[in-house]
Predict the structure.
Amino acid sequence: MKKTNARERLLGTAADLFTERGYGAVGINEIIAKSETAKASFYHHFPSKENLCLTWLEETHARSDTRHDAILNEPGDAEEKVIHYFASLKEWMKTKDFRGCPFTNTVSSLDKASPPISEQIELHKLSIRDFFSALAREMAPAGSASRRLGTTFFLLYSGATTEAQNLRSNWPIDAAVESVRHLISASKEASAKA
């Protein structure tokens, strides 16, 4: 069986190690050894561990954006899309052994400030909020009501992810889904009265 190229091996190994133990607890030499890659090859592809992590986060973000665009463009109503997105979090958390969000985990394990990594994390988090806001615009009147609803979805999603990770249980996600259903119902009632 043919080995993947060195860049892919380095990124895959780093993703596994960063996810399992956190960015700050993983060193370059361990990534090089576990990816079966020469040190020179590491530095050919990545000038530093920070750059490797940044590349991993950028690629993870790009996949997330692609998924969000597909959800926004597929047929179906926004309410079902939001509920399904939350519900799919349960399976994702199980497959990731309740490791949670790689962006949240990375920022919490930085051993020193890294503006490029912090900026990528903020960009990713804001893009998730924007995704929920786009769905909320289909459910609530444009303006402050839809912004508030989208931000609330985002905060519920982030909180459910974090607490499911902390407790190694899916009940926070179930509770978030119930809250989302309640918010959608309240939004419909408010729109009907307007």
